[in-house]
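Recall that a protein's primary structure is simply its ordered list of amino acids. Everything else, from secondary elements to tertiary packing, is in principle encoded there. The following example makes that idea concrete.
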Amino acid sequence: MLNKYKVTGLDTSLVDLKDYDNCKFIKTNFCNYDKTNYNMIYSSFTFHSISNEHQEIFLKSITKAGTYLCIETRSDKDIIALNIIYFSFFSRY
């Protein structure tokens, strides 16, 4: 992906994240962030940790036709992950 794509990372982290040539970070809530300028949205280990209400807000905020949505989540059916991952109180399963 190096210099092939422009990437915007959204995070509410208290840590200052360093921008790179093709990647910038913005401290913001990803649920209602304006996504109209993006062709692909990738959500890594976030969707399962928000409420149903925030999931609806997130999904409804993707308004541009043809936008790809990729969601990476945990599963309570993954035996290996269940043995090694600590599930926080934010997980909804």
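Strands lie at 7-11, 23-27, 40-44, 68-72. The CA atoms of residues 44 and 72 lie 5 Å apart.
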